[in-house]
Write a structure and sequence with these properties.
The complex is a heterodimer of chains A (about 700) and B (about 190). With about 700 residues, chain A is mainly β. Chain A is built from 1 helix and 63 strands. In chain B, strand 8 and strand 9 form a beta hairpin. The model of chain B has no long low-confidence stretch (mean pLDDT about 85). Classes of the chains: A mainly beta (about 700), B mainly beta (about 190).
């Protein structure tokens, strides 16, 4: 029994020895922030054997009970932190404290550096990572402007970017374990400086206190004021194009464009012109009956029939207009329901001229209609002026119905004028306008054009001829044209007053021609009786040198200097005019590139006359060249213009004519050297030389020209 | 040419009284070539022009000889531009002194400055400009050369002179002033009195 008792005691003692308890306590904190790290895995090793594990609580604390005393290794791992371990000696019934301050996993900062304005990457920019004002890492950007800095402990940093010719930029960055924080920079170019001086344009003395405003795209950005020496300086101006403006009291504002470049000073000086002070016009506008002030009355200063200044009266009926250049003006005050006040005023420099108006209430109205005197139709867009002593008081424009309305006309006696395009100016004198009454003035305007009209009939049968062509001709040019109707009637409208030749042409009839005078706004009657059995003039036009037929050549038939018929040659050079009355004619043949030919011919009744023509090509001199030569001797010289040309293609050319600035100065025989020296010219004046030729037929070619100085 | 004759007579009248008062000296006839310094003149008249001179030297000291010189240069040329004929004549009267050294038996080197007064006369064959033009000019001259005794009173003069002789041109010319002087080099024979 005793043995059993001892055995039990021994077992108990042994058990107590085996399970003797020790303890390891501690806390796990963030080495950077000193905050507790919760959930950190605590592993206890005995040698390499894992003995126990636990995790830290929310306070970062842990506790591990150890059964056997001895040497242990405590390891800790936590997400986002570097692993840590520590040795620990556990003693029975004692608590061993093992604390950990974990270092966070490193992170990195990366980003890009670009130009603020162009967005182009900036290479070679220096990136510095700063913590507690101490640079701890740096790098430079690559060709793409990128950078990266790794191995940074988690925490807050300042990152700076520096590059040549750029302003430094700084940004904050928070680095997280195992993470890359992106910090991009857009660097602004280093600023420049704008400086200069503001002076008086007349005296060149400096202007103190002039306000300098530097704007970009109409947005003021920088401001400065000149010192006692008229100088100003504005620093820190980003590169770019600006507008610099200088303003000073009693001076005209000056403005200039300026380009600011990196690290450079742009000088912008101003010489300000003194501002014209002018005079002041002031006064009041009152009711002539009650003497009460009239508010809102419009006061206008008229110069050269144009409103130069205007303002409105205040509640007291007063007005002031300053800065009016010295001179004589007409001042008008008008307000609805009152007669317009008109007075003359002389404004003197730096003086106040007082003009008061006492306006009489009520005014008259002028209205009416403007019509065409011939047709009676309304004229829209006509300008109606109402004038007093040749001074235009008011104006109006007619509407689509030809009506106009002018209100608020001061009672008086006026003249009125009416203008419309295509019509003669109409006027009306002594238009009496009474207060509160309407005066009606209608106007019928005369057209500035006239017409010609009439009938074309057969002289034999007296029947009307339809389809006859009637031309109104002025200086051998067809101004207007018309075809006769089935009843033989025609009208050519819109002819300016003057003398015309009216030509009536119809197939199988002789052309008739008459001269008439067109009067403005009148219709002139011209009737035609066309005779039958017309004569025909026909023929062919060929090149006088090659003999080839010439198409598109103009054939004009004139009788007594009047154009009676025209034709163009066809592709075979033929022409034919079959409506001619018998008589004598001048035939003019002309074509581009040919000398004009004129020939007289006669034709009898019903005859078919054939007249052929040979046109000589117009061959001016060729390849005209020239040069200015200084014919220089030792003590004197002269400027000579030497012109040369090649012979005309016309073998019959006799001589060449040389013109200087339109005046004939010489002739050169075709047999001589084809050049001409024009002496004693000036190098300060350009001379236009023209050369043409004259052939054996007396034809004068077109010019070829050259300018020499 | 009549100007040249007049100048020679004037020079003789000037020199002979001095010589007659017993001042030793020599009278030299020199011929050479004249080269324009003016580029314009060279363009018009080409390279060298003939030069003839008459010069009197006075032996005041063994190393110091005042001199007086008259010369005549002429040349024909063609205008720039139209190549019209032109004729150039330049007569110059100059005075100065020479410094001589060393006093070797067989030769002496001399150098010296002087003032010159010249009259330039040109004839321009143009129908559009004045036929003749003339200008007076005052300038300076620098002389240098060798004197070599030959036989008894005969002396050989090898010379190289430079004349600066500005004249004004007509105002229409861009070049308002032309140096009608230039280099002259050649030889001459002198007779000691």
């Amino acid at each position: 029994m005793t043995r059993i008792l001892f055995l039990i005691i021994g077992i108990l003692l042994h058990t107590q020895g085996l399970f003797a308890l020790g303890r390891i306590n501690g806390t796990v904190t963030d080495a950077s922030s000193r905050n507790p790290v919760s959930g950190a895995m605590i592993s206890l090793f005995k040698g390499s054997t894992l003995v126990s594990t636990t995790t830290t609580n929310s306070s970062g604390s842990y506790s591990i009970t150890v059964i056997t005393a001895g040497q242990y290794i405590v390891k800790v791992s936590a997400s986002g932190f570097q692993d840590a371990s520590s040795g620990a000696t556990v003693i029975t019934n004692q608590t061993t404290i093992v604390n950990f301050a974990l270092q966070g996993n490193p992170g990195s900062i990366a980003g890009t550096v670009i130009d603020f304005n162009t967005s182009l990457p900036i290479s070679g920019a220096v990136i510095e990572v700063i913590q507690n004002d101490v640079p701890i890492a740096s790098t430079t950007t690559d060709a793409s402007g990128n950078y990266s800095l790794g191995g940074l402990a988690s925490g807050s940093y300042d990152v700076t970017a520096n590059a040549t010719n750029y302003q430094e930029s700084e940004s904050g960055a928070v680095v997280q374990p195992d993470q890359t924080t992106t910090v991009n920079f857009a660097l602004k170019s280093s600023p420049g400086t704008i400086s200069g001086t503001v002076t008086d344009a007349n005296t060149s003395l400096p202007i103190q206190g002039a306000a300098i405003t530097v704007s970009m795209d109409d947005t003021p950005l920088f401001f400065a004021a000149t010192d006692a020496s008229g100088n100003y300086t504005i620093t820190g101006v980003p590169p770019g194009s600006y507008n610099v403006e200088a303003q000073a009291d009693n001076y005209e504002t000056g403005g200039q464009d300026a380009i600011v470049q990196v690290n450079q000073t742009t000088t912008v000086n101003f010489a300000l012109a003194a501002a014209a002070q002018g005079g002041i016009l002031s006064g009041n506008v009152t009711d002539a009956t009650t003497s009460l002030p009239i508010q809102g009355a419009s006061v206008e200063i008229i110069f050269n029939q144009t409103i130069a200044f205007s303002t409105l009266t205040d509640p007291s009926g007063n007005y002031t207009i300053d800065g009016v250049p010295a001179g004589s003006y007409v001042v008008i005050a008008h307000v609805p329901t009152y007669q317009t006040g008109i007075v003359g005023a002389i404004i003197q420099e730096s003086q106040t001229t007082t003009v008061n108006f006492a306006l009489s209430s009520s005014s008259g109205t002028v209205l009416g209609t403007v019509t065409d005197a011939n047709t009676g139709l309304p004229i829209s867009g006509a300008i109606v002026n109402i004038n007093l002593s040749n001074f235009p008081v008011d104006t109006a424009e007619t509407n689509a119905s030809g009506e106009y309305l002018i209100q608020g006309v001061q009672p008086n006696i006026y003249t009125m004028s009416f203008e419309a395009s295509g019509y003669q100016i109409g006027s009306q004198d002594e238009v009496v306008v009474n207060a509160n009454q309407t005066t009606t003035v209608n106007m019928a305007l005369q057209s500035t054009f006239g017409n010609v009209a009439g009938t074309v009939r057969s002289a034999m049968s007296g029947l009307p001829i339809s389809g006859a062509t009637i031309d109104a001709i002025l200086n051998r040019t067809v101004i207007g044209s018309s075809l006769s109707s089935i009843s033989g009637n025609y009208t050519i409208p819109g002819l300016a007053p003057g003398s015309y030749e009216i030509l009536a042409t119809a197939a199988n009839f002789q052309t008739a021609i008459n001269t008439i005078t067109i009067l403005a706004s009148q219709t002139t009657t011209q009737n035609f009786l066309l005779q039958g059995n017309p004569s025909t003039l026909q023929g062919q036009v060929v090149n006088a040198i090659t003999g080839s037929p010439l198409p598109e050549i103009s054939v004009q038939i004139l009788t007594n200097g009047s154009l009676i018929a025209t034709a163009l040659t066809d592709s075979n050079g033929n022409y034919s005019i079959s409506t001619l009355p018998p008589g004598s004619y001048q035939v003019i043949i002309s074509g581009v590139g040919y000398y004009t030919l004129s020939e007289d011919t006669s034709i009898t009744l019903g005859e078919i006359e054939t007249v052929n023509f040979m046109l000589t090509p117009n061959s001016p001199p060729r390849n005209l060249t020239g040069k200015a030569i200084d014919n220089r001797f030792l003590l004197q010289k002269e400027r000579v213009h030497l012109i040369r040309w090649q012979a005309s293609e016309d073998p019959t050319v006799l001589y060449y004519q040389i013109y200087r600035n339109g005046s004939l100065i010489a002739t050169v025989s075709a047999d001589d050297s084809l050049q001409y020296e024009d002496h004693n010219r000036s190098s300060k004046v350009a001379d236009l030389y023209s050369v043409n030729d004259v052939n054996s037929s007396g034809n004068v070619s077109s010019y070829v020209s050259i300018t020499l100085r | 040419m009549k100007y040249l004759v007049r100048i020679l007579v004037f020079l003789s009248l000037l020199v002979l009284p001095i010589l007659s008062f017993g001042v030793d000296g020599d009278l030299r006839i020199r011929v050479g070539v004249f080269g324009f310094t003016s580029r314009t003149a060279r363009k018009i008249y080409g390279g060298a022009a003939p030069d003839i001179e008459l010069q009197g030297d006075f032996y005041v000291r063994s190393f110091f000889n005042p001199w007086i010189n008259v010369n005549y240069v002429w040349k024909e040329g063609k205008s720039e531009g139209l190549k019209d004929k032109t004729y150039f004549q330049l007569g110059t009267l100059s005075i100065g002194f020479n410094l001589l050294f060393p006093h070797y038996k067989f030769f002496q080197f001399y150098i010296g400055p002087g003032f010159s007064s010249a009259y330039l006369h040109t004839t321009d064959r143009s129908n559009y400009l004045p036929k003749t033009t003339g200008r007076f000019s005052v300038g300076v001259v620098g002389k240098g050369g060798f004197l070599i005794p030959l036989y008894r009173n005969l002396v050989l003069d090898l010379f190289f002179d430079y004349y600066y002789q500005p004249v004004r041109t007509r105002s229409s010319l861009s070049e308002r002033q032309i140096n009608v002087g230039g280099f002259r080099t050649g030889g001459g024979l002198g007779w000691k009195f």
